[in-house]
């Protein structure tokens, strides 16, 4: 487990294809400009086949109303082509954005860890580790308020921890 509170670190803007709820393409700048959104939770997934990734998005979908009640959006980013990401959406009907990052450009820009050197970079399921971030978008200039970098494939923050991080932002 590795959680880190990052003191107001600006994050890169991005735009990616979205196969689920919300606009397609999804733009972080547009999400940050929404006056009804205070926080954006980014979930960087490992791979299409990752069972822990699938469990995470389903568990968050089951509790998505709690995120909405805190004026937070959830965005899951899968390092796969659009067609594969659409298969996830067809299976899970997620109520939040599900983005395709086929060339891993956004995942890499956000420093999603990859282990096992060249082997890990060739096969996301082997090398790519999960990351969860809470972005504070109240100023419409997204900044990282919280980052959780998994050290193992199943290492992810608890949903209650993500919700608490959002609550703590709102208390500021």
Output the keywords.
alpha+beta, 172 residues, seven-stranded mixed sheet, two-stranded antiparallel sheet
- The radius of gyration computed from the alpha-carbon positions, rounded to a whole number of angstroms, is 15 Å
Form type? globular
Identify low-pLDDT runs.
118-124
Helical residue percent band: 25-40%
The largest sheet, given as strand count, sense and whether it forms a barrel, is: 7 strands, mixed
Number of strands: 9
**Topology as H/E string?**
EEEEHEHHEHEHHHEEH
Mean pLDDT: 85
Which percent band covers the strand fraction?
Answer: 15-25%
What is the overall number of helices? 8
Structural class: alpha+beta
The rounded distance between the terminal residues' Cα atoms is 26 Å
What does this structure look like?
This protein is of the alpha+beta class. The protein has helices at 28-33, 51-62, 64-69, 82-92, 105-109, 117-122, 124-127, 159-171; strands at residues 3-4, 9-10, 15-16, 26-27, 39-44, 72-78, 97-100, 131-136, 143-149. Strands 1, 2, 5, 6, 7, 8 and 9 form a seven-stranded mixed sheet that branches. The longest helix is centred in the last third of the chain and has 13 residues, at 159-171. The protein is globular and about 40 Å long. The protein starts with a strand and ends with a helix. Mean pLDDT is 85; it is low at 118-124.
């Amino acid at each position: 487990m590795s959680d880190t509170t990052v003191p107001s670190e600006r994050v890169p803007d991005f735009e990616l294809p979205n196969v689920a709820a919300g606009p397609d393409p999804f733009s972080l700048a547009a999400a940050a400009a929404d006056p009804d959104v205070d926080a954006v939770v980014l979930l960087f997934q490992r791979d299409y086949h990752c069972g822990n990734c699938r469990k995470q998005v389903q568990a968050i979908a089951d509790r998505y109303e709690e995120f909405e009640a805190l004026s937070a959006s959830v965005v899951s980013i899968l390092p796969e082509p659009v067609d594969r990401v659409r298969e996830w959406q067809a299976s899970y009907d997620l109520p939040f954005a599900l983005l395709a990052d086929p060339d891993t450009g956004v995942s890499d820009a956000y420093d999603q860890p990859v282990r096992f050197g060249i082997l890990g970079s060739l096969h996301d399921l082997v090398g790519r580790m999960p990351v969860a971030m809470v972005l504070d978008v109240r100023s419409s200039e997204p900044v990282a308020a919280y980052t959780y970098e998994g050290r193992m494939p199943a290492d992810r923050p608890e949903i209650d921890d993500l919700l608490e991080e959002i609550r703590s932002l709102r208390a500021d």
